[in-house]
């Protein structure tokens, strides 16, 4: 049997409002993999690749999902927002700033996923209760902070947004 | 090799007809785990995520119909949750918000794990699974749809279109035991529905399929007047009988004995909740 090169796919994704061409990709590649390895967008992190840790959270068509569980080639018609698409022109978003101020970042590995999840929460809920915050972040795992400072950061964003 | 994203059910059926080995993809929360862990290498994929018909639900006077690709997030609150509180309770226990934003009932039925949280609800509420395929439509009662551990009665080329659940003014509830609160696969789960003359009970994660505790159901209806409070000794015996219908195994998540115990506790607890 002659060896043939594995068949590959070409398609286009819209990430943070911009079109990106994906070439020669394997059919089963996750959106997380394509973002990081093909599109030069390594902000989304991968740890478990089975939906358990939330470090790969992105927003697809208005829903916060695990990018490791999105088949990249099936997202051709979707609007995808990653951590790189939050905040204006290299500036930190208010959520990122609040994480720093509150000490909600230690090793930082979980942070992009949390920040995307918090932006998503606050775009739907302007004044979430503590339980709503905990629930909204229950799919994101942090090994370092113990969560207290992350919750504090979210509450701080709510306060700052209200007073601005 | 292709990943196709059809816009209509008939288009999806045509694609499956021309490539019967294509893998169906809904929310990806089961399928992508298998792909990422190298358990599965699909040759081609048909995504159901852009078919509007599969993403809508309808709360009618007699029946609630839920498209196969409606995510759990849409069942947690709003009209579906009002019509089907047990389904809402089950949906809220699935994974995490990210998983509930993507995962669907069609995928739960496609995978047919005994621990699938949607499935005991479908079993207890006498849901019907509506399937479309090359040989026409089929309407399969859930209790005939699931035939074993991760086995269902779908034939090649068939797509689950929707499930329908008869509406009633029964009390209904769902409860689940697992090792933690968020992000946990059930060790045991139970859905109970109660009218003034009957109960139905379905058990998850304690047998190769979802189990309807039919002996316990009919025993309780004979043993007391269900329009009144169930006497404590009757409730205890009911819980014992429900537990006796479980067929649990020892595995990495739990022991059989603990699972049977959990079923007894859940049966009693939901019967009590149905009276408050
Ligand atoms: C971190 C994590 C936590 C989880 N927690 C839970 C939990 O608590 N409770 C629970 O029940 N499940 C849980 N799951 C499993 C999964 O989320 C559910 O089984 C979900 O319902 C699958 O739906 P999906 O749309 O993502 O399916 P997919 O992964 O897209 O598909 C699953 C299977 O169904 C088939 N399929 C999908 N749609 C159709 C259709 N319309 N017709 C025919 N076949 C179809 C696919 O071909 C595939 O074989 C979890 C998964 C993860 C990753
Ligand atoms: S890498 Fe996606 S959830 Fe962990
Ligand atoms: S800061 Fe290290 S995992 Fe969260």
Summarize this entry quickly:
Chain A is an alpha+beta fold and 164 residues long. Chain A is built from 5 helices and 5 strands. The structure holds flavin-adenine dinucleotide and FE2/S2 (inorganic) cluster (2 copies).
Structure characterization notes:
The complex is a heterodimer of chains A (164) and B (276). Chain A is α+β, with helices and mostly antiparallel strands. Chain A has two domains: 8-85, Roll (Ubiquitin-like (UB roll)), CATH 3.10.20; 94-163, Orthogonal Bundle (DNA polymerase, domain 1). Helices cover 33% and strands 16% of the residues of chain A. Chain A has five helices and five strands, in the order E-E-H-E-E-E-H-H-H-H. A five-stranded mixed sheet of chain A has the order 2-1-5-3-4, with helices on both faces. In chain A, helix 2 packs across helix 5. The longest helix of chain A is centred in the C-terminal third of the chain and has 16 residues, at 148-163. By secondary structure, chain B is of the alpha+beta class. Chain B has helices spanning 9-18, 31-36, 73-76, 79-83, 85-92, 97-102, 105-111, 118-124, 142-145, 214-223, 232-245, 256-273, and strands at residues 2-4, 23-25, 44-47, 57-59, 63-67, 128-133, 136-141, 146-148, 151-152, 159-166, 171-177, 188-194, 199-204, 211-212. In chain B, the strands form four sheets. A five-stranded antiparallel sheet of chain B has the order 4-5-10-6-7. Chain B has a four-stranded antiparallel sheet with strand order 11-12-13-14, sandwiched between helices. Chain B is globular. The model of chain B has no long low-confidence stretch (mean pLDDT 96). The A-B interface holds A 7-9, 11, 27-28, 30, 49-52, 54, 57, 63-66, 68-71, 73-74, 76-77, 117, 135-136, 138-140 and B 1-3, 5, 25, 27-29, 31-33, 35-37, 40-45, 47, 49-50, 71, 73, 95-99, 101-102, 182-183. One FE2/S2 (inorganic) cluster (FES) binds at residues 46-49, 51-56, 66, 68 of chain A.
């Amino acid at each position: 049997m002659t060896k043939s090169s594995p068949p590959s796919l070409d398609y286009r994704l819209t990430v943070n409002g911009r079109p990106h061409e994906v070439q020669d990709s394997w059919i089963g590649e996750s959106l997380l993999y394509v973002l990081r390895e093909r599109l030069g967008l390594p902000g989304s992190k991968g740890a478990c690749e089975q939906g358990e840790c939330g470090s790969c959270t992105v927003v697809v068509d208005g829903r916060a999902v695990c990018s490791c569980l999105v088949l990249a080639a099936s997202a051709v018609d979707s609007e995808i927002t990653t951590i790189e698409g939050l905040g204006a022109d290299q500036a930190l978003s208010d959520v990122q700033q609040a994480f720093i101020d509150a000490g909600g970042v230690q090793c930082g590995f979980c942070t992009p996923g949390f920040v995307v999840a918090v932006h998503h929460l606050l775009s739907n809920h302007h004044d979430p209760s503590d339980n709503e915050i905990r629930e909204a972040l229950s799919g994101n795992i942090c090994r370092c902070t113990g969560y207290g400072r992350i919750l504090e950061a979210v509450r701080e964003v709510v306060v700052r947004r209200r007073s601005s | 090799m292709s990943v196709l994203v059809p816009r209509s059910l008939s288009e999806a059926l045509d694609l499956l007809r021309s490539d019967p080995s294509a893998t169906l993809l809904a929310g990806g929360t089961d399928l992508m785990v298998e792909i990422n862990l190298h358990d599965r290498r699909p040759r081609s994929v048909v995504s159901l995520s852009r078919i509007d018909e599969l993403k809508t639900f309808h709360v009618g006077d007699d029946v609630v119909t839920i498209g196969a690709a409606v995510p759990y997030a849409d069942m947690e609150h709003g009209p579906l949750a009002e019509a089907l509180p047990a389904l809402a309770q089950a949906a809220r226990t699935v994974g995490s918000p990210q998983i509930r934003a993507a995962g669907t009932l069609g995928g739960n039925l496609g995978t047919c794990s005994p621990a699938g949280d949607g499935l005991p609800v479908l079993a207890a509420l006498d849901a019907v699974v509506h399937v479309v395929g090359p040989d026409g439509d089929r309407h399969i009662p859930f209790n005939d749809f699931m035939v074993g551990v991760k086995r269902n009665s779908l034939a090649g080329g068939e797509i689950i279109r929707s499930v329908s659940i008869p509406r009633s003014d029964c009390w209904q509830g769902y409860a689940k035991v697992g090792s933690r609160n968020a992000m946990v696969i059930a060790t045991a789960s139970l859905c109970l529905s109660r009218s003034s003359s009957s109960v139905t009970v379905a058990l998850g994660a304690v047998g190769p399929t979802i189990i309807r505790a039919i002996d316990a159901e009919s025993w309780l209806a004979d043993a007391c007047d269900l329009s009144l409070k169930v006497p404590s000794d009757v409730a205890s015996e009911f819980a014992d009988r429900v537990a006796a219908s479980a067929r649990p195994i020892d595995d990495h998540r739990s022991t059989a004995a603990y699972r049977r115990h959990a079923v007894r506790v859940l049966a009693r607890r939901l019967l009590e909740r149905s009276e408050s």
